[in-house]
Write a structure and sequence with these properties.
The complex is a heterodimer of chains A (290) and B (328). Chain A is 72% helix and 0% strand. Chain A has 290 residues and is mainly alpha-helical. Chain B is built from 16 helices and 2 strands. The longest helix of chain B has 33 residues. The chains are: A mainly alpha (290), B mainly alpha (328).
Amino acid sequence: MIESRGEKIFKVINNFLLALMATAALYPFLYVLSASVSKPYNVITGKVLLFPKGFTFDAYKEVLGNPDIWLAYGNTIFYTLAGTAVSMIFTICGAYALSKKRLRGRKFFTILVTLTLWFDAGMIPFYLTLRDLGLINTRTGIIIAFACNAFKVILLRTSFEGLPDELEESVKVDGGNDLHVLLRVYLPLVKPGLATVGLFYAIERWNGYFWSMILLTDTNKIPLQVLLKKMIVENDLQSEFTAALDFSSTISAETVTFATIIVSILPIVLVYPYIQKFFIKGMLVGAVKG
Amino acid sequence: MRNSAAPIKSSAPLNKRMRPKGDMRTYFQELKRDIIRDRILYYLLIPFLVWFLVFKYLPMWGIQIAFKDFSLFRGIGGSEWVGFEHIREFIGSEYFLRVFKNTVIISLYGLLICFPAQIILAIMISEVTRERFKKVVQTLTYLPHFISAVVIAGIVTTFLAPDNGLINLILEKLGMEKIYFLTDPNYFRGIYTTMNLWKETGFASIVFIAAIAGIDTQLYEAAKMDGANKFKQIIHVTLPGILPTIVVMFIMKIGSLLSVGYETIILLYQPATYETADVISTYVYRSGLIDGRYDFATAVGLFNSIVALILVVSANKLSKKVTDAGLW
């Protein structure tokens, strides 16, 4: 079809504005990246705007030489992997059982689960419950107390419900039971749903800081986000790098913070383009259900 | 039961039970048979339900301390009842108005600025014809959504730092005065809203992009025939096409007017900015987990939850009505 002049102009302006917005979305990360490999003097005098000035990797050397960061990184990986695994087991079991229309009590159990989306006991009663259960300052507490989420159960249940009943019957005819149906037939077929739910859990684990900050009092148990919060918000680093900054310094509290930020978001930024589609799917299901 | 009135068919599915009314013995026999038949499903379900009871319903038992003089020593059940004392104290305090006002204002900022931005971005993205470019724009604008609150708050803090933050360095170069952004209560809501605009607009636009994709392309062709230019097409085809989605999302936002999260705010606010930054959830966090006034904080949280629940339920009812009626 032939485009009119008006349409062409519209397109050019539209594309230009979108490019601008995309750049704006990316810019803060580019700045942090450039600043993390620049000399502190150039950073604090505003010479670094987009590209690094006075290239140096000293901030990264400092970060990677810091045992606290390694420990926190290890903790984050552990909480993310173990937490997601536990979450998936609970969510799959619950969602599968609740997807079976013949199950007695299904309606009641479903309401029991979905009610938690509408009413939450609140921060303090939840905290006191965890304390009474002895889950404060334990890795188990962090893993188990946040294992399940009604929204994700519903999301996965919907995937299961989309499978035809004939699949189940064919397994049953061959003498299989409900567990066989789940493991052999259902799970392989709902892989996209599983990926969506699993990635949601994983990213929440990786990014979450609040409850880890509240519940974990031992510094050797804290995940990366809590350590980052100490560095950035509470400015823990300032005292370490108070020595007067001059032109020749290759490291400062700011550049170390920037380097830590980059190290902490690197895994997400690297895998993000490949997993994006699963989040989009989850977002759409959520909006329809919501 | 619906099935009891249905004519008996020999080919009826296995799980459609026929049972004369009032025969309790058969009912329990059938129940037992079904539970035994589905025992594996129950084995899977039980740990899952126990989890919900322990981590979602057990805390609800603790809500009673909102009406008690809670002592750690005596525990939740053993503490003494004080009735509505905590709720009365909260409503009577100067904080009541402040945190409510801040919560609503911050929500309204989001509703008036971020919400329209999501729709505009979605329309703009949908107008792109080159798939590659579209993909890149989407990927980049969604990205900030996946970055943690701590990192985002860290970036905001360093950008706005008074001495050598990027924004102040630029202001200085332009010959302007430095601004102490994060210690000045006048700026907090603006900063918070701008941050959310940057972080969430892309990802939140997904819903609208999907809605636009569902519009019949023939409508655009027809509009073109009638001589409508791009802007007219957007106003007369795109917007009416996604209006149901807009209305539903808008009502949902109204429903969550009182649910401003604490996670980002507690990273950005400080005593100097409490005046404009302190919302209900951050106040609950501070009075409960920082000051240790568990009973009072629970009362504040409960008060908030109940008002918020009423809002959400009404919003949901309203949105059901709107989508069912389809009048839009």
